[in-house]
Structures are given as C-alpha cells and as structure tokens.
Amino acid sequence: MKKHLFKMGFAAVMALTIFSCKKSGSGETAIISKPLFVVGQSITTTTLPQKDAQGNSIPLKGTMLAGKTYDITGDVTVNAGDTLYIQPGVTILVHGDGLTADSSPTFYVNGTLVSDGTKEAPNTFTVFETATVKKSNSTFKDDVANDPAFKGYWGGFQCGPTAKLLLLRWTHLEYLGSPWGPNFADYGVKSGDPKFGIYMNTGANNTTGKLIVEDSWFYGSKDDCIGKCANIYVSIMRNTFIKTGGTGGEGVNLKDGVFGDMAYNLSFGGATNGLKTASVAGKSTMVNIYNNTLVQCGFRQTKATRNGSINTETNTGGFIYNNIIVNCKSGLRITYSSEKGSPSDTLNTSYGNSLTCIGRGTPMGGTEQYMVFIEPHQYTQKRSTDFNGYVNGAIITGSVADAGTNIGTNTATDSLKYDPLFVNYNVATNSTGRNYRICELPAGYDFHLKTGSPAIGAGVYPGGTGKNAMPTKTAAPLLTQYGFPMKLIPTGGTFGATITPPNKDLGAFPTDGSGNQHKY
Prior knowledge:
It is a single chain. The chain has 520 residues and is mainly β. The chain contains one helix and 40 strands. The strands form eight sheets. An eleven-stranded parallel sheet has the order 6-8-11-14-17-20-23-26-29-32-35. It is globular, with a radius of gyration of 23 Å. The relative contact order is 0.09.
C-alpha cells in the first residue's frame, strides 16, 4: 500500500486504506473503504487540552480521529500556521457551564481548523451534560428564560486575525455563546458579552481568511450564531439554524469587507433576522443571498426596525433571489434606516423572485404581533417576479436623505394567498396564537414543496430565460465584478467549498433534490 503525500503548506498524508473481506458465494470480496485524510500527528489523547510542565495548555494541531469522543476541559488554541483537522464521526464534548469565561471553553483559531464530517458520519460539538448543565428538548417551545438552548455553555470558534480557514462540513454545533472575560480588547468586546458561535475577522493587513460552513446544523445560541464576521470570504451553504439568539441575535451577521454567498439555509425560530449583512460607511460588503427558507423569525427581538428575516444595512449589497419567507415578523429589508444601520448599497443590490407569506388567516395586528410582507419606508419594493401582498407606494424623490424609499402598504387579508405549500407545515395554524413564536423545530416538519406550489419553477437559475433568467445589472460595478454566485473561495477537495448555484425553484429545498439535504 502506498502513502500519498500532499504539499498544501503543511504536512498531510492519507491514512492507510482499510480493507475488509466478506464471503460471497464460493469466494471472498474485498471491500475497500474510503481512505481517511490525516494532517500531521494523530491526536490519541481524548481529554484536551493537555498541559505542559508549568500547567499551561498546549496548543492543538494534528488530526482528531474518526469515531472517537474527545472531552474539552479548557480553552483550545490552534496556533498561526498550524492545522487542526477532524475526521468524520467525531464527537466533541465541551465541559462548560456558561457562567464565566474560565468555566466555558472556547476554540481560539489562529491558523486552520477543518471539521470534515460527512452525511453518513457527521461530527458533533456539544456540551457535556451534568446534573446542573442540562440540554434542551422538545418541551421548550417558547421559553427563553428557562430553555437551556440559550444558556451559552461554551464559546464556539473565535478566529483571530491570522486565521486562514475555518471549515465546518456536516457538523452539529450546539449551546453556543459563553461570556467573554477581561483582556480581549482585540476582539472588540467587553467582559461579560456573549461570544458569537463563530467569529472571524482577519483584518485589513492580513491575508483574507475563508469561512466555509456547509451542510451543518446549529442549535441554540445566546446571541449571533455566526456573528459580526469581517474582512473574510464566505460560503455558507445548505445549513440549518434553530433557536438562534435568546432575546436578540441573528442566525448569520456579516459585517464589513465580507464577500461571498449564503444559500440553501433553513432558519427556524431565530430571535432577530435569519440572515443579515451590515458594513460600515466607506467599506463594502457584497454577499449573494439566495434559495434560503426562513420560518418564524424575528419575534424575540423587541427593538423596532431591525428584525424580520433577511436584512441588509450600511453599504452592503449583493444578488438576493429565490428566497422563501414564511410567518416572519417582516420580509426582505433593503434598509434605508434601522436602529444602528445606515442605508444599504442600492446601486450594488439586485433582488426579486422571492415568496413572502405571513400566513395570518385574520387581519394582522391586534393582540398578536404584527407581521408584514415588506416594511414600508425602506428601499424594498415588490418586484413583478415576487409573491407577496405588498402594494408599492410612491417613491420619494428629491435631494432628501430618504430618496428612493417608498411608503407602500401591506394587504392584511392577502395572507394565505401566498402559501408556498410546504410538504409538512401548516402556514395558517402556525401564524396564530403563540404558535408563530415557537422556536423548537418539531420533528417531521418538511419544507420541501408540494405539487402545485407557486414556488416551483419561479426562480432564477443558470440557463433560465425570461423571468427565470439570471439577473444582471451592468451599472453596478461590484455586482459585475464579483458575480452570482461568487468564485472567491476554492472549490472541491478537503479544503474547498461545494457551491450550489441558484435553482429554478424557490427556497432551500427544491424539487430536484439539490440544495439542503437535512431532514427533521
């Protein structure tokens, strides 16, 4: 047998191919398993991190081995230039309680971390359950104060300015958001602030880091699940986000200098927005947001004009197409103003071919929280290719700050007209009473599309014509430069992304079986 050497900036070797034999008739058939990838030395010690003679934690590098369970009892650091690689089928139990930074371990990534789970053998990062550190369950539907999903038991992945790559593939992450301690000014935080589940900012003076998150599950976070990332390239594809944010926080919140794609994600029960981009004045962020499904988001955040489903703010743009938004506080917001954000980059924004259903079988408002198709007095308008009950108003003109916004109206009685016909989710039932606030995804829900759904065949896609043609906006220099989807991140192989292009159907679960592969 041969060992194949790979030269990729660090020593990486293929593990020996494993053979097994079984009898078949008069002979034996050799079954050759897929060889496992190995980076550096195998990590056989299962309680980590190890300590040196002075009691200091030893930084981690090498390969966590398939099928093993590792116990994390303190902060883990991956040094600049080093790689921590996690084979498929690994379980990582973090011994944290969410009470202090010292008692709630965090992965600090200054180099490269790859969690390489597979559909057949996913990886899992979760909390080590004890008598006082409890896990959530299906009985916690809308109970932020008591639900363990929002306790923030451990600190997730905090990537420093020298981080090259964080790649999570077919990986479960649960119970994120432990508090910061003192002396972390370089992360721009205060002691006691909750950590984001994933944070990455490689800064203007370093090689742009890459964040690839695909086919993974996020369950429970105290604040943003993927939060305030900046100066990176992203590919966030085919993931599921459940119970993100306690009384605030986004599923994904991308800040200045971020370029890439977010597609085929399901966000269910998020506190604020499922997907958000918000840069700073004078610096662009361009992220394409397409073929996502967002359900029951935006109701735990009580602050006005910042929550709903998909939100773009200061100096951000991208192609935003083929999304389905159901029973959220509001539909797509291309922002003129919000509590913290200045206007979106409308020049470099193109959007359409999306469906928004608020599902309310009775007029909106009253004792039930208000739902809208589109929030008035923002830049968002209903496109001819959209499905929603918004009526565009007059566009404000002249040399005024809010020029380009409109003050349209939402047709309250239009609710069920835009039902996307999910295989197993009753839009009307889940829009009334307190049902729309449920953030636990019930077993058996299925967001694929039934025959006859208006979302089938309504999307833009490569090769499409007419209303299905891929959009162009020649006057928008950044859209023209970066494309749809973008090609900034290498694809294929162990260290590359798998990018799914737009589909002819709307949402994360198109009828051709591509897109999000998760079942609930």
